[in-house]
Predict the structure of 3-hydroxybutyryl-CoA dehydrogenase.
Amino acid sequence: MAIKRIMVIGAGQMGGGIAQVAAQTGFEVVLNDIDRAFIDKRLAFIGGLLDKNVAKGRMTEEDKAATLARLIPSTDLKDAADVDFVVEAATENLAVKEKIFRILDEVARPDVILASNTSSLPITELAAVTGRPELVIGMHFMNPVPVMKLVEVIRGIATSDATYATVKELAETMGKVPVEVNDYPGFISNRVLMPMINEAIYCVYEGVAEPEAIDTVMKLGMNHPMGPLTLADFIGLDTCLAIMEVLYEGFADSKYRPCPLLRKMVKAGWLGRKSGKGFFDYSS
Ligand SMILES: CC(=O)CC(=O)SCCNC(=O)CCNC(=O)[C@H](O)C(C)(C)COP(=O)(O)OP(=O)(O)OC[C@H]1O[C@@H](n2cnc3c(N)ncnc32)[C@H](O)[C@@H]1OP(=O)(O)O
Ligand SMILES: NC(=O)C1=CN([C@@H]2O[C@H](COP(=O)(O)OP(=O)(O)OC[C@H]3O[C@@H](n4cnc5c(N)ncnc54)[C@H](O)[C@@H]3O)[C@@H](O)[C@H]2O)C=CC1
């Protein structure tokens, strides 16, 4: 079955990026969130990025208008009845995602693949709440989606070869490079990245150095494009904590314990760039 119409669930930074890239590569995109205001805000942000592409001569005004016209807002998961593929990018919370997958399983056509952009939650568990586990898979884009080439394609225990092949091809059509990964906590990307970020937070917690100094060491010393604390703010501290919890519980190993400072900041609502405050200040 040819994929023409894709539903993206969650119009946050990741869902917005996935929707933008899918629309730019010719797919019709139903962009779903719980509140129309979140979708409108994201569409305005996407419009701004496309304006920049036009100004830089990478895209014509016509292409921009056609891309925006392919983005269809939705606040009802029942709109999944009318799509060929779903990728869920809602908040990193197993209960939230399980609820969405149960509804999607009832509403979407029985042949439709249900993918999740989860950073770390078990694909196998999401698949198990549906009656189509062979059609459930991880499609993990990196942030910011329009810039980053990688997509981790995560096979749950029951994911079929045909589902894997379809998602690999879809990622390539969207201009990305897919990498095949089996379903274990944090997959590859966040199993390797997040303990480094957590360790940088421990360096702040233990007074080893100021956040600026820690980031400077990693940027100038290791050529990372962003220091780990700037990157944590960029990802979202709530998402970083959720990923550390999955690693900690999933491996039952104390080496993955989330730093208490990370917990404290999330409890305070200091979520990084998206809330205006994290390790650095973004209020101005
Ligand atoms: C948590 C997970 O599950 C997995 C993850 O995603 S982990 C996070 C992975 N991502 C990273 O590690 C990102 C590391 N940082 C970087 O690569 C770079 O700092 C960056 C690409 C984000 C910004 O690059 P920069 O050179 O410092 O800044 P800047 O020149 O402003 O931006 C470069 C380009 O990125 C684009 N960009 C930056 N932020 C963007 C955003 N939020 N959305 C879309 N595009 C964005 C800019 O528009 C710019 O595009 P053009 O070249 O077309 O103008
Ligand atoms: N932030 C990052 O760098 C990355 C995040 N991810 C994953 O992508 C997913 C989304 O993350 P972000 O976009 O960063 O979060 P975000 O906080 O920017 O956006 C999440 C969006 O999901 C919406 N949402 C929550 N419950 C919903 C529901 N029941 N139905 C529809 N929409 C719902 C929220 O209203 C919000 O707009 C998470 O699973 C996260 O782990 C994956 C790669 C990178």
Remarks:
- The chain has eleven helices and eight strands.
